[in-house]
């Protein structure tokens, strides 16, 4: 038994020592800087035009200037977020042409980036990287409806009307969410599953029906399909490729199982 354990430890050490992941730090740094700075310069230009117009053209009194300034700065914040989303979307569209987003189960191949599998993994990481900053900033802003715009424009998700994302962990791509769905804080939608850094990567579509409600702590894994009017109560886990029971609307537990009205709240 001890010999088997030693052999296993040695194999793990060999994998750890031989397998390394190398990413271009400068590439991602410049990408991040570009997405951050271009919208900032756009807002700076609007601010200088505003100041020039207020001071030199209208020559309004200082008191009125300071009254108008906070509202204009608030507008610039909104313009910054919109510009940030659109700049990131330009990168996303360009990458999608070079390597269209693909569903499936893949071995994480970091070495051969020129192969088809290597390109899929490489661009998967790029898309995931470029959407995270806009996603985080819009979710913490006074304009939470911009979360849906971010997911549509950058991640090319299908988000229908009146979908409300609270402060949740969103599915960055391959999600379809039906009309009037409500996703409570701390819920999780993940269209990808990583077994380990060098293991398999599952990328599968999540499709939520209309009028779905995800209460806090609900976790939705890759490949999940729900029906219209489903309600998932707190701490419900929907594992990969989960399917509900036809005609049942309320679910709870791990994995999510149907519950009757009499069980709700227990």
Write a compact overview of the structure shown.
The chain is of the alpha/beta class.
3D structure, described in words:
By secondary structure, the chain is α/β, with parallel strands linked by helices. The protein has a single domain, classed as Hexapeptide repeat proteins (UDP N-Acetylglucosamine Acyltransferase, domain 1), CATH 2.160.10.10. 45% of the residues lie in helices and 14% in strands. The protein has helices at 2-18, 25-57, 62-98, 116-139, 146-153; strands spanning 104-107, 158-159, 164-165, 175-177, 182-183, 188-189, 192-194, 200-203, 206-208, 213-214, 219-220, 231-232, 237-238, 250-252, 257-258. The strands form four sheets. The protein has a six-stranded mixed β-sheet, with no helix packed on it. Strands 1-8-7 form a three-stranded antiparallel β-sheet, with no helix packed on it. The chain has a three-stranded parallel β-sheet with strand order 2-4-9, covered by helices on one side. Helix 2 packs antiparallel against helix 3 (62-98) and helix 3 (62-98) runs antiparallel to helix 4 (116-139). The protein is flat, with a radius of gyration of 23 Å.
